[in-house]
Structure formats: structure tokens, C-alpha cells
Design goal:
By secondary structure, the chain is α/β, with parallel strands linked by helices. It is built from 11 helices and 15 strands. It has 2 domains: about 200 residues, Rossmann fold (3-Layer(aba) Sandwich); about 100 residues, 3-Layer(aba) Sandwich (Rossmann fold). It is globular and about 65 Å long.
């Protein structure tokens, strides 16, 4: 704890310089010296103030499940860590290195949805609408801090266990902007909440968030499904106390995931990499070696949906070595029976949208 405080103090001058740069940029947007583009169709942004880990992907998927049967909805992401540039329509046959793991996941799970990537959102939206004139609404993935586009509805996530109001600017903390930037949000979602969150805890969090009059606050948790073999979704594995798990992950934080797995299985051994890590051949050797060292007659490797997109590049090796890698699916659920309230908010925004 003391070491952590000392590191934050040592990095605080750099954080201050970073914050000054952010303040200058935001000031220019606020003064109209840099113009933000508005579009003549509904644009919903889902993002956060912090670097990674708040659950943007499953919340985008929640919106896709809510909307895609009724309207032509599309997603636009930057395609983080892809080796391509510019605008691309994401296809199911793409790989994660070409389009990014999360956009590829959207495309595979929602084959009738237009999924695109472009690092410049203001350029990407005209491209996608020009190529797909049937689009009626756009979901912007991880765009809260990208102010070149003004969304019609701005949704900001913050983790229950790591709320933005207790965090610090990069590099001393995880914030990409000053805490005060949360005022731009129309909706605040406290994500990764414990399933047994009490009304008292909810109200305390709302008090600490100090939402403005125009902001609505919701609370969500992850609901995990049954793991399936990464190359055959019909082959599932029910987790039980006779199973030993090697958790393979390259995500921003594993605490929430571990808290779910540990009570359900015999043991969990966590093998963690940096967020969005591109797995190398050497990594696969290490993964196999750790799995072989796990002394258990009933053992599997569990990974996330996002990680499975990047592990797919090593399909031949995984199948040759018969590595039992199972993917743990997740969905978002709203606490306090407020899912219908959130759904209605989204529907009202779309129905009342005016150019």
C-alpha cells in the first residue's frame, strides 16, 4: 500500500502535465475552436474515463441484443491493436490482428449487424453510412474521450470496485481525463457490481457519484454462461467442484472473474497477460507447459470471449496438442429490476430523435 502511494506521488508531476494537455484540448472543444461533428442519425456512445476493464464490450452487446431485431443498428470501433489502418467493414472471416478482437467478436455473435472499424470516428461514420445507407443507428465503442463526434446519447461506465472518483490521471492512475469529465455523460452505469448489492450500497454509490440533474444512474453485473469449447460451441463443460481450472486471460482485470470461478471449481490457477495481448507461439508453449504441470485428472483451460478471438490464430497448435480451451460467455444484467427502465430510455431516445 505504501509503495503504491509513493509511486503515485512520483508520477504525479507527469499526471499533472498530462492533465494540462487534456484541459487544453477539452477547452478548445468547449470554446468551439475545435469543432465536434454531429450526424443526422442516432449515435450512442459507450465508453469510460478509465483505461480498460469497465465492461464496454458486454454493454455494447446488450444494446445489440436490445435493438438489432427492430432497427438497422451498426457498431464503430477503432479496432485496438489491429495491424491495419483506415476504415474497414469487419467480416466473419477476418482475424483479430486485422480488425481487433472486440469488433470481430461483435461480428461473429451478431452476423446480421454491420460492424466497422476506423480510428477516426468523424471519418468512419460517413464511410459506413455511405456504404450501408440502411443504417438507422450507430453504437460507438470506447468513444467517451474522443470528442471529434458529438453523440446523441453518451453512456459512461465506471467499475463498482474501481470507481472513477477514487482514481487518478495517467500515469499515476487509470484516468484518461479529469474526473470532472463525467458531466458529459447522459447515463452513468456502475458496472461489475456484486449480485447481492444492497439498496444502501446503491444509494451510497449514487451519493459519491454526485450525478447532475440530466444524468440517470444504473447498476449492472456480469452473468456468466456455461463454458464451451472454443472450436465447437455445442460442446460445453459445466463447472463443478471436481474440475481444476487454468484461467487464461489477457484482460484489464481478473478480480471479478476470479470471484466468480473460485467458488464453483476445485482450484483456479490464473495465467495472466497484458490487456489485448497478442499471443505468440512461445506463449502457447508456456500455456501448454503450465497445463501439463497442473496435477489433476479433470482439468480444463478457461478463457474469455475476447481472448478466444486472439487465440484463434493458434488453432492448429491448440488442436494438435489437444488443449481443452473453453470459452466463458458473459452477458450484462441490470440490478434492482431496472433493465426495463434502461431499455425504455434507449427506445425513447431513438423514437424522439430529431435531425
Amino acid at each position: 500500500m505504501l509503495d503504491n502511494i509513493i509511486v503515485k506521488l512520483l508520477l504525479s508531476p507527469l499526471a499533472l502535465l498530462y492533465g494540462l494537455g487534456i484541459s487544453l484540448r477539452n477547452g478548445m472543444y468547449n470554446a468551439g475552436l475545435i469543432r465536434s461533428v454531429k450526424f443526422n442519425l442516432p449515435v450512442i456512445s459507450v465508453g469510460n474515463l478509465s483505461v480498460g476493464g469497465a465492461g464496454k464490450t458486454p454493454h455494447i452487446e446488450y444494446l445489440l441484443r436490445l435493438l438489432h431485431h427492430y432497427i438497422e443498428v451498426a457498431t464503430l470501433s477503432r479496432g485496438y491493436k489491429r495491424n491495419t489502418t483506415g476504415y474497414l467493414d469487419v467480416l466473419a472471416e477476418h482475424n483479430a490482428s486485422e480488425v481487433g478482437d472486440e469488433p470481430l467478436q461483435f461480428r461473429r455473435k451478431f452476423p446480421d449487424v454491420t460492424v466497422t472499424v476506423c480510428e477516426n470516428r468523424a471519418y468512419g461514420i460517413p464511410q459506413m453510412v455511405g456504404r450501408h445507407p440502411e443504417i438507422q443507428a450507430i453504437l460507438l465503442d470506447d468513444a467517451f474521450q474522443h470528442r471529434a463526434v458529438t453523440p446523441g446519447l453518451n453512456i459512461m461506465l465506471t467499475e463498482y470496485g474501481r470507481p472513477f472518483f477514487k482514481d487518478f490521471l495517467l500515469p499515476a492512475g487509470r484516468l484518461r481525463e479529469w474526473r470532472s469529465a463525467y458531466r458529459r455523460a447522459d447515463v452513468l452505469i456502475v458496472s461489475k457490481c456484486p449480485a447481492d448489492l444492497t439498496l444502501e450500497q446503491k444509494n451510497k454509490m449514487i451519493e459519491q457519484l454526485a450525478p447532475f440533474a440530466h444524468q440517470q444512474v444504473f447498476f449492472t453485473q456480469y452473468v456468466y454462461g456455461t463454458p464451451y469449447y472454443m472450436f465447437n460451441q455445442s460442446y460445453i463443460k459445466v463447472l463443478d467442484k471436481d474440475t481444476d481450472v487454468q484461467l487464461l486471460s489477457a484482460i484489464a482485470g481478473t478480480d471479478y472473474l476470479l470471484s466468480y470461478l473460485e467458488p464453483k471449481v476445485a482450484t483456479v490457477t490464473s495465467q495472466e497477460y497484458a490487456d489485448h495481448h497478442n499471443f505468440s507461439t512461445e506463449d502457447l508453449y508456456d500455456i501448454r507447459g503450465q497445463f501439463l504441470r497442473l496435477d489433476s485428472p479433470n482439468k480444463i483451460i478457461v478463457t474469455t470471449e475476447k481472448d478466444a478471438m486472439r487465440l484463434e490464430a493458434h488453432r492448429e497448435y491448440i488442436q494438435k496438442e489437444d488443449l481443452p480451451i473453453f470459452v466463458l460467455p458473459i452477458e450484462v444484467a441490470f440490478l434492482f429490476d431496472e433493465g426495463p427502465k434502461f431499455d425504455q430510455l434507449i427506445q425513447n431516445y431513438l423514437l424522439n430523435f430529431k435531425v
